[in-house]
Amino acid sequence: MSELVILLQSSYLYEIEIAKSKLASRDIPSYVKNEFVNNVAVFPMSQNYVLVVSENDLEEAKKILEEDDSVDESEML
């Protein structure tokens, strides 16, 4: 079994969730660390959210997140 390794860190949960969705669409499981910290804390905390993946999926996950999401005009309806 491989270890979980950090793929992405961000102060914004939405950035982590977008990356997680991209990976899920390619069948790469990922997990968010620190997702609920601000729900428990009395005062909002400045902290990073962390997206982790299996060590075996790390290189493929990096490639997916580096892909350009721009749409070619010829593909638009």
From TrEMBL:
Domain named DUF2007: residues: 5-67
Species this protein is from: Chryseobacterium koreense CCUG 49689
InterPro entries found in the cross-reference section: DUF2007 (IPR018551), N-reg_PII-like_a/b (IPR011322)
Lineage start: Bacteria, Pseudomonadati, Bacteroidota, Flavobacteriia, Flavobacteriales
Protein's name in the database: DUF2007 domain-containing protein
Pfam families found in the cross-reference section: DUF2007
